[in-house]
């Protein structure tokens, strides 16, 4: 049978790179990645493995439409933080509030996602469209926490597919990744007074936090969604699903250190650790709903996948 083509938006990133490497190992697939910088080390490495690397920018509709030509599958993961971080740093240097950075990043990510979705909807060869969102914090919190732009931008894009491109939505599956295994929020800090380590978190010890290594595991889950599952699947993708108490005890056992879970309020994280409400609204939602997938209906977990390759 002829090879099929998967186009990976942002193939040099952690999620996209994992998807690219997975499909490059499959003789039935050709891989095309989009990047703003085809000469970057990550792009060069993927090219050496056999990927077709094309220059494309989510701010440029024509470049995206060209990159999607003849695609049988598309993986899309949009980026919020490359806009937010430098803008916030410039605002910090001027002693200004960070909120304009969130507004600009939200506007940029939703606009870029809209262009990508609009372009994908025009591809007659497309069979599968996979998007990587986060929960809709506004919906999940009943409007109580509206400021989590990085989550809400992705939720907006997922909703846009359904409302504005119903035919594309029929080909779409969503992959919700668990918390990254190297997320600094889940890393302990040393307690100089006691010699122990502290996990300072507002979440209850019983709260279950799915954990994933995005660079290693994203690809296998995307493959399962494309090759084995029906469109419309919503997958919570993770490697492990421990409670916060288990994260603490597992870290202590693996590192030969004694560690404790230190409760803290959301306000305390804002005042003492310096986390912005951009980050804290999603934590508030998780804490109050006691559910990592708050507001998402009818999703499945890895054990429910039909694939025998996971």
TrEMBL record:
* InterPro entries (alphabetical): NAD(P)-bd_dom_sf, NmrA-like, NmrA-like_oxidored
Q: Determine the domain of life of the protein's source.
A: Eukaryota
Is Cell division a UniProt keyword of this protein? no
| Gene3D superfamilies for this protein | NAD(P)-binding Rossmann-like Domain, UDP-galactose 4-epimerase, domain 1
Q: What are the record keywords, sorted?
A: NADP
Q: Which residues form the NmrA-like domain?
A: 3-271
> Hey, which family's this protein in?
Belongs to the NmrA-type oxidoreductase family.
Q: What is this protein called?
A: NmrA-like domain-containing protein
Where does this protein come from, organism-wise?
Zasmidium cellare (Wine cellar mold)
Origin organism lineage: Eukaryota, Fungi, Dikarya, Ascomycota, Pezizomycotina
């Amino acid at each position: 049978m002829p090879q099929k083509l998967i186009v990976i938006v942002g193939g040099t990133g952690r999620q996209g790179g994992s998807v690219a490497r997975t499909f490059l190992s499959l003789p039935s697939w050709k891989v095309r990645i989009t990047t703003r910088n085809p000469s970057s080390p990550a792009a060069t490495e993927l090219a050496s493995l056999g990927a077709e690397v094309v220059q494309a920018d989510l701010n440029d509709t024509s470049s995206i439409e060209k990159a999607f030509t003849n695609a049988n599958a598309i993986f899309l993961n949009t980026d919020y933080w490359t806009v937010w971080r430098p803008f916030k740093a410039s605002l910090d240097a001027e002693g200004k509030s960070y909120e304009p950075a969130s507004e600009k990043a939200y506007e940029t990510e939703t606009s870029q996602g809209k262009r990508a979705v609009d372009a994908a909807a025009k591809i007659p060869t497309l069979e599968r469209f996979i998007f990587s969102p986060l929960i809709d914090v506004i919906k999940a919190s009943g409007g109580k926490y509206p400021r989590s732009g990085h989550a809400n931008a992705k939720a907006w894009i997922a909703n846009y597919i359904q409302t504005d491109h119903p035919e594309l939505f029929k080909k779409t599956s969503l992959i919700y990744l668990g918390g990254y295994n190297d997320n600094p929020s889940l890393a302990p800090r040393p307690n100089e007074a006691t010699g122990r380590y502290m996990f300072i978190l507002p979440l209850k010890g019983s709260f279950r936090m799915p954990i994933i290594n995005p660079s290693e595991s994203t690809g296998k889950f995307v493959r399962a969604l494309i090759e084995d599952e029906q469109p419309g699947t919503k997958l919570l993708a993770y490697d492990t699903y421990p409670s916060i108490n288990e994260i603490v005890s597992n870290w202590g056992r693996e590192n030969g250190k004694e560690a404790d879970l230190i409760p803290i309020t959301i306000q305390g994280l804002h005042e003492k650790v310096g986390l912005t409400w951009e980050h804290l609204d999603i934590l508030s939602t998780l804490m109050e709903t006691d559910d990592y997938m708050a507001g998402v209906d009818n999703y499945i977990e890895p054990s429910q996948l039909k694939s025998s390759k996971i």
